[in-house]
Design a protein that fits this description.
This protein is α/β, with parallel strands linked by helices. The protein has two domains: 10-60, no CATH class; 65-333, Nicotinate-nucleotide-dimethylbenzimidazole phosphoribosyltransferase (CobT), large domain (Rossmann fold), CATH 3.40.50. Helix content is 48%, strand content 9%. The protein has a five-stranded parallel β-sheet, with helices on both faces. Strand 4 (268-270), helix 13 and strand 5 form a beta-alpha-beta unit. The radius of gyration is 21 Å and the shape is elongated. 53% of the residues are buried. The model has no long low-confidence stretch (mean pLDDT 94).
């Protein structure tokens, strides 16, 4: 891909599907373990997917998973579409860094390193560690009902930042990424993206968000998504402009991350509605890219269900967890690890010698 200008069309050529021949080899190996067909349910499918993604039969167990959370504030939160105050996403980031957020607790319990990337937090950059803020594009994304979230130059910077982080993780040996977000107003931007890409109305995709809003806030959120949709439809054919118009720096970076992870053959577990929206934009760029992703859980957000259905992804879990922040992906990780371990370690039965046929 050229270093001078961002050519999204190149992803369509760079991204290949996981190796179908390897997947068939993994399936055949599974039949030689002696377990009855279907005895392991979806774990068989997951094990074969991982083998194809990592081009190994038997597949190696997952050794270096990593949680990546893209963080940002969204100007649309000023309209009261979130239960959290506008501009307060930095408090979510601080809780995650200090180990007190749900995702930090689960990541610690699972032994998964957690990486937070500030793309557009509405706070002074000096309040957070340099490794968190070094890719920041701006303070908060614009109010998408009346203005663009980003300039096109800012969108390209954010997209390239996501690509760079995907390369850093692949180069470091990360073999499975858990993708989430830390945002205030992010589910509203996600709703606009999913509605415009699925050709549906605002009310169909408007959910209650991770902090669960009341009815009045839901109506404000629905109106904000409706107004964002009006601005999104004219730029539907240009995915980078779409992200600049109604996405935001964190969602744009996550989209670039997903596409470059697919280029680098790094599997990803998606968390909730925000990562699903980014994945849907990425699918529009490169139709083979979703073959590298799993949906961690059903968050209960109607927009997420729309997006996953469009991509043909079925959530691994449905526990009614709405907090977001990567928790759904983390909860799904043990299931994926179990599938990898079974595919890697179940022994094959020795071949039985053919019994001689009696002479006639």
């Amino acid at each position: 891909m050229s270093d001078d200008r961002l050519d999204l069309d190149a992803f369509g050529d760079l991204i290949e599907r996981p190796d179908g021949g390897i997947r068939r080899d993994a399936e055949e190996r599974r039949t030689r373990t002696g377990l009855a067909p279907g005895a392991l349910g979806r774990l068989d499918e997951l094990g074969e997917w991982l083998a194809a993604a990592r081009a190994q039969v038997p597949v190696k167990p997952i050794a270096q998973p990593r949680m990546v959370l893209f963080a940002g504030d969204h100007g649309i939160a000023e309209l009261g579409v979130s239960a959290r105050p506008a501009g307060s996403a930095h408090t979510l980031v601080r809780a995650a860094l200090d180990g007190g957020s749900p995702s930090a607790v689960l990541a610690r319990q699972a032994g998964v390193p957690l990486r937070v990337v500030d793309m557009a937090l509405d706070c002074d950059a000096t309040e957070l560690p340099g490794e968190v803020t070094r890719y920041r594009v701006r303070r908060s994304s614009g109010r998408i009902d009346i203005e663009d979230a980003l300039t096109i130059e800012e969108a390209e910077r954010a997209f390239r930042a996501g690509m760079a982080i995907a390369d850093e993780e692949a180069d470091a040996g990360t073999d499975l990424v858990l993708l989430g977000d830390l945002s205030v107003g992010g589910t509203t931007a996600a709703g606009v993206l999913i509605a415009v890409l699925c050709g549906t109305d605002a009310s169909v995709v408007t959910g209650r968000g991770g902090a669960y809003i009341d009815d009045l806030a839901w109506m404000r959120k629905c109106a904000a998504i409706r107004d964002g949709l009006r601005r999104a439809r004219p730029v539907l054919g240009d995915q980078l402009q779409l992200l600049a118009t109604v996405g935001g720096a964190d969602l744009t970076a996550a989209t670039g991350f997903l596409l470059q992870s697919a280029v680098r053959r790094t599997p990803v577990i998606l968390d909730g509605v925000v990562s699903a929206a980014c994945a849907l934009v990425a699918q529009r760029v490169a139709f083979r890219a979703p073959d590298w992703w799993l949906a961690g859980q059903d968050s209960g957000e109607p927009a997420q269900a729309k997006a996953l259905d469009r991509m043909g992804l079925e959530p691994l879990l449905d526990h009614g967890v709405t907090v977001g922040e990567g928790t759904g992906a983390l909860l799904a990780l043990p299931l994926v690890q179990a599938a990898a371990a079974l595919a890697a370690e179940l022994p094959e039965l020795p071949e039985q010698p053919e019994r001689p046929q009696p002479e006639s």
